[in-house]
Each structure stands twice: as C-alpha cells, then as structure tokens.
Design goal:
8 helices; mainly alpha; single chain
Length: about 170
C-alpha cells in the first residue's frame, strides 16, 4: 500500500477509525490557536529585546519551526482520540482539548502584549497541568494519539523553564 493511498485513508476516515469531521474540527481549532499566538508574538519589540534571557534560549525563527509540527500533531492526535473515544468519554476529551488550546493561546498575549512574564509563567503551569490531563485522556482513548502529544508536553515544559529563567533574570519585568 503506497503513501498516497494511506493518506487518502486517513483523510477519508477509513483505515484507522478517524473521522474526517473530527480532523477538520481539531485542525481548525488548532489553526486558530496558532494564528492567535503568531499575531501576539513580538520578539522584535524593544521590551523583549531588553529582557535578560538565558544563553540556551532558541533564536526566534526556531519557534515557528517547532510549533508548526507540534500543532499538526495536536490536531491529528486530537482527531484520532476523539474518533476512537467512547460516547461517554468524548465530551470530556473534547473539553480537555478545548481548554488546552485556550491556555496555549493565552500565553503569548500575556507575555508579549501585556508584558507580564510572571503571569505568563503561572499560565504555563496551568498549561502543563492541562497537558498532563489531556495526554492522560488521549492515551485512554488511543495510545498512539496520546504518545503523539508527548513532544508538545515536552516543549511546553521547556517553555516553562525558559519563562522561569526570564522571570528570575528580570525581577522588575
């Protein structure tokens, strides 16, 4: 079976039990989150450039290179899990995904627009708790989908460490 045929199965919802409508919904929700984040990000602002940042902070172009595949994984994993979850589990899983995406979208304006690194750090703690809950629910519905969320959870833990370092190095920010 060729890759083209396998891709057609995934999109059509045949072969892995994923519903096309679930993939469309999770893709749209994830795209909205990504766009919201990109619109609020301003690494060229005078305020951000003046922050004392750790040497291990990635350069600004790295964020798009990392977030793009992570958002694809979130959309795909969410759709796969929602399609495979039982009727009783599906609403809670959908809520967990929605809350997670809302928390994901909230960090960028807190940090860049409101210039509140401490509030953004607290928000990241909430996002990490949400990631754990979402991953747990997703693993229950579909092991593969849950495992696909692990890179996202790992990246947000890294973002938390970076945000904490910025708070520590910039006590007045």
């Amino acid at each position: 079976m060729g890759l083209g045929h396998r891709c057609d199965q995934v999109v059509s919802g045949h072969g892995d039990g994923m519903k096309k409508s679930s993939l469309v919904k999770t893709s749209l929700a994830t795209a909205v989150t990504a766009v919201a984040g990109s619109l609020a990000t301003d690494p060229k602002s005078r305020w951000y450039r003046r922050l004392d940042k750790p040497s291990w902070q990635p350069p600004p172009p790295a964020y798009g290179a990392v977030w793009t595949p992570l958002y694809v994984l979130i959309a795909y994993a969410g759709a796969r899990a929602l399609s495979r979850a039982g009727e009783a589990e599906r609403p809670a899983l959908a809520r967990a995904l929605g809350v997670n995406l809302a928390l994901n979208a909230a960090w960028t304006p807190l940090f860049f627009k409101l210039r509140r690194p401490r509030a953004a750090l607290a928000e990241l703690v909430a996002l990490n708790v949400s990631n754990a809950a979402l991953t747990r629910r997703t693993l229950r519905a579909d092991r593969t989908a849950g495992l696909l969320l692990l890179p996202y959870a790992g990246w947000t833990l890294f973002a938390t460490a970076l945000n904490a370092a910025i708070v520590r190095r910039n006590p007045r920010a």
